[in-house]
Backbone:
């Protein structure tokens, strides 16, 4: 079944909020997200600042210990302008680096849908018309965390959250551990473009049209967000420092290789060690994100 | 001028050792490295274990405050077998992860030069013939560090060292800060293949034929190793935790953008924030390596 | 005014829950906490596991940007037995340390109120009757965090939380930043004894009688929990890694020295650098706690 | 036997340098150290900057796998003035903290030996005559590290080095792992006073008279520096981040409790968890120092 869902409330935490929509496992949801600053596709300010979330979506049958599978069929900007910060976060630079700039005003990017590009308006002088391709992604999505928590959309954890990983793009399938009945899926923080690490604290922040399909995998327990696309399977660890995020992602991949690919611990160690690729998600937020990837081509059949 | 240099001594530290070869700026050196375990191309054990280094090579005219440019024209295995560890380092996994395995025996890989592949002999059961392409790189190279230090080839720092970054491959040009007269360039630790992070503690460890050209850039002062290939410029930060390695790499790139590409601090922040890509070098050793990259296509002309 | 408050609900998050008690600024509250496992003074299991909190207490007049002053007049065990874990957390030890033990059963301590001691029952052989003095403290207390969050009592942040600092003992005054109307003060997780770091994951966990006085300091904005006792003023930073916790605590102390002790930035740097003492709070939980202390004797009059 | 040793060379690395003195196990050495900046007791500049070291002292019979026991009988300033920095290191404060000051000029402290105090000359205004007690300590000492390394006295490791722990004071006994024949003991970097963490980058830097007794403990292998005084035994872990330093110190203490105090792994976990105290050594240098302490009063007889 397909649901057309026009959200009217937006949360700045991911938590056990009143469901905004109820769906069955396998249903598709056609919806939209407002931008990280609370601005709607139509240009109105309607949500709280700081990655306001569409949802939560209650998925029938989801229970703690299950996994929620989320196929992102579509993520595409639904308006022709986004905003972007212009200074790298101090903690990404050497302590006391004189190149820490203090520039709080944001830049506007105009989208050219015909050419699939975004161009800054009035960037710093020699970059006054910096242009990038539109490569849409969702920076923040997740399920309600354990213990009745409601956690700021500024950060992330085992439940997902503000991972800002550019691999969460159209066509990807994400997997999330379910901690509460109905899973309570949230989504928001669309970016028309983002580099690694989101070190500016933003990508090109924009409202999005999103189509996704939600499915409950009963009795499958995972520890951290996972994903797959045509070429890779991957896991995301969310913690500080980046070393700890790396530990979660790597251990989660070892578990995955054993439960789903028939490897034993020794084989999983060897295969991962021989083929791992790491991608850096968010290194701006309270929790950093490290992604541990394996090419599908090297996985056992 | 081209030097054919057959090393006879190998150091397990990078430091102010007696030069093994003197060259002029711009000279090319055709030489070889033994493997990380001290084994020569001919199968003999001749060097100390732990990334024994060929060199040091004294480059005439190099002084503290200069930069040494190293063009790696050739890095290619000079024997048909290498060795590899089989277990992921405990610190790369979650504390107490039951998938930490304790397997110290190493695996042998056989190289097929015709097909440019390497195949394991007797890998763990379902991976008994795991095969990878030959993608050679140097895991450890650098110049003598400051203050007369001699630092173990197990680790790395501003002078280079054991970075285990697979981007240090044939065709790349590396740049290193010079701390002592003559720079004193060392090289070793060739890998026929390595995944990100060197999380096994090894790649496919093998002896190599190496051809490189050394050039002094007078009066150019840099803070951390840099590199460039056809598509990217990059900087390497070496420290623990990975967060600090990231700071060094990112700050170094901001400096580079200003001194060589005519950007001011504000422009450098914005350009790097919009286009940065991070690659994970070594996360096995005492110091971890994070690489900060920018595509050449986005650099100002 | 004094309130006798017998809690009936306990939260395992610190958040914007329905107030369980309303008080005026300056009021004293005589209340009790159940233990970290949910066990009441009377031996009944009545709360959720994991540092269930008494409260929240709404303090009239408290608004975001104010500070809540909490004087702990009394913290004392209200039953004669507590429990304790027996194994050091894996992440406190070297990765792969063979001394990581896997012992999940807990030990019981019997309290001797006459001698103010606690003695283990059946500790590991040669420590079968290990005895410590009763030195009560509260491991976890805080105010509702910003953005409507409800955060697990397993962790900590600017709002306080599970800091497990043994300096939060009877006689201490704590200061907390107010993020929501009424501040919403929570308390729990009493320990009859705890070493530095809470590296077992517990102290001697016990229910407590607590008397405290709550006061709103209008218009005083602070960034992190603070405290003072007869001899010291101190600040608590809560984050991972411990280095970051140290940064928050140190920067908060610099701010305090300027706003309340008439020092300028230069003087504050020098005084803190000459006299700082650091205490390690929790290094078990998701966020670690570092405490930055200055002796009152060195403060300007 | 007692040696009066007047050093004439000073090293800014700890390494396998030519011995400056040979002693037998059990001998006492009466010597002196110059200050961290290279200034002698007599006011002359005679050494390299950056913690120049007296030594190395070769101890007959010491071999890799042994332990060197160093009893510091005397550490006392041998001149009436020392110097001190005045700004907290940027990395000790929150990234971008506006209270990072940029003050490179150093302050002079005058020592009053009659009253055992040190008073600053011209401190920042309200602290113009800040006075502290003389509490002497050695900031940097150690033995030659493994693999023929020579490591900057700016940092530290398993071999000791620049730990800046105020517990390394007169009367303490330190234990160091021996990596090379003769151990090659170095010492320097005396402080007349230092707070925790050496967050200014200096204590009160001064030249010292030092008397110490060196003894080889054959066949005793330890992993990290250890110490004991009247009240405590302690271990020092040297690494970044502070979390890793904590791991080394804690694991080393677990090992000590088993080899020397007859505890098994389970007992050692419990005893350490119940009684550990952590002290923060250097958090200024490339490697940080965390000290893990246990009161002697709780150790098994």
Residues:
């Amino acid at each position: 079944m397909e649901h057309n869902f026009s959200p009217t409330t937006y949360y700045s935490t991911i938590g056990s909020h009143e469901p905004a929509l109820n769906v069955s496992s396998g249903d598709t949801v056609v919806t939209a997200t407002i931008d990280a600053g609370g601005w709607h596709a139509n240009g109105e300010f309607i949500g709280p600042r700081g990655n306001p979330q569409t949802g939560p979506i209650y998925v029938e049958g989801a229970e703690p210990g299950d996994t929620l599978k989320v196929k992102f069929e579509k993520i595409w900007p639904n308006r022709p302008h986004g905003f972007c910060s212009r200074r790298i976060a101090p903690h990404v630079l050497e302590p006391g680096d004189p190149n820490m700039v203090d520039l709080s005003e944001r830049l506007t990017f105009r989208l050219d849908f015909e050419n699939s590009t975004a161009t800054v308006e009035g960037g710093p002088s020699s970059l006054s018309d910096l242009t990038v391709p539109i490569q849409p992604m969702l920076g923040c999505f997740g399920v309600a965390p354990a213990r009745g928590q409601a956690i700021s959309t500024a950060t992330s954890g085992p439940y997902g959250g503000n991972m800002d990983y550019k691999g969460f793009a159209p066509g990807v399938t994400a997997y999330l551990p379910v901690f509460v009945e109905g899973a309570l899926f949230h989504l928001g923080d669309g970016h028309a473009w983002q580099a690694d690490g989101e070190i500016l604290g933003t990508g090109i922040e924009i409202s999005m049209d999103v189509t996704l399909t939600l499915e409950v995998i009963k009795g499958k327990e995972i520890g951290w967000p996972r994903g797959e696309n045509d070429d890779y399977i991957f896991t995301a660890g969310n913690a500080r420092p980046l070393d700890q995020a790396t530990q979660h992602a790597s251990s989660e991949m070892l578990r995955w290789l054993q439960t789903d690919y028939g490897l034993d611990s020794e084989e999983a160690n060897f295969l991962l060690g021989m083929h791992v690729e790491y991608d850096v998600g968010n290194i701006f937020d309270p929790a950093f994100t490290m992604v541990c990837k394996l090419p599908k081509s090297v996985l056992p059949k």
User: Anything to note?
Assistant: Chain C has two helices and 21 strands. The longest strand of chain C covers residues 67-77. The mean pLDDT of chain C is 97.
